[in-house]
Amino acid sequence: MNNPIEAENVYHVFDWLWCSAQLSESDIATLPAIGIEAVINLAPPTASNALPGEAELVANQGITYIQIPVAWEHPRLSQLEQFFAVLKAFKRHKVWVHCAKNKRASAFIYLYRRLCLAEEEGAASYPMSEIWTPNPVWQAFIDQAIQHIKGPSAHD
Predict the structure, then answer these.
(1) Low-confidence stretches of the chain (pLDDT beneath 50)
(2) Burial degree of 156 (CB within 10 A; 0-12, 13-18, 19+)
(3) CA of 45: how far to CAs of 50, 54, 74, 113, in Å?
(4) Among candidates 27, 51, 156, which has minimal Cα distance to 99?
(5) Among 9, 34, 44, 105, which is disulfide-ready with 99 (CB 3.0 to 4.6 Å)?
(6) Furthest-apart CA atoms within the chain: distance in Å
(7) Is 35 left (phi over 0), alpha (psi -120 to 50) or beta?
(8) How many CA atoms lie within 13 A of 10 on its CB side?
(9) What's the N-to-C CA distance of the chain in angstroms?
(10) How many CA atoms within 13 Å lie on the side-chain side of 25?
């Protein structure tokens, strides 16, 4: 795909899944052209680079908008499980996941790949390993998720 998206840290993870940092208004306008059917925003509306009116901008493109506001210093397993449920609900649809810098999004995608798709560490770590090394808060969250959420049967 020739990337018309201006957001930082854009990754095409699977044929149906993309992730990035905060989308701009012009980015949102291009999403229908690549077939995006849902946008999941993991940043809280108070994020410093949040786009005012993002939900309306996305909805005006005919795209489903879901916000799961994950506090940077306090990610919760319930939010991860909600994220897994949304991806399951949008199975066979094209989904764009973003947050402020693609750190929350890439960590949640990593956990999706490990826990739902049962991928090996090397494959699952893409694109997270390209973007950042989780800080102690996020590494503890990742470890907790792996310990507490067991395999694909947890959300099939």
Answers:
(1) 1, 152-156
(2) exposed
(3) 6, 9, 15, 26
(4) 51
(5) 105
(6) 40
(7) left
(8) 13
(9) 31
(10) 5
Helices 77-89 and 104-111, axial angle in degrees (round to 10): 70
Q: What is the pLDDT of residue 1?
A: 47
Closest CA to 107 of 133, 86, 68, 144: 133
Q: What CA–CA distance (Å, rounded) separates 129 from 122?
A: 9
Q: Which two structure tokens, joined as six digits, stand for 64? A: 């489903």
Gap between the Cα atoms of 122 and 126, Å rounded: 7
Residue 56 tokens, joined: 């309306």
Give the global pTM: 0.94
Please name the helix (run of DSSP H) or strand (run of DSSP E) that holds residue 13, with its range, or none.
strand 11-14
- What pLDDT does residue 149 have? 81
Give the pLDDT confidence score for residue 151 in this predicted structure: 52
Q: How far apart are CA 137 and CA 134, in angstroms?
A: 8
Q: Report which residue type is found at 42.
A: L
Q: What does the DSSP assignment read for 65-110?
A: EEE----TT---HHHHHHHHHHHHHTTTS-EEEE-SSSSHHHHHHH
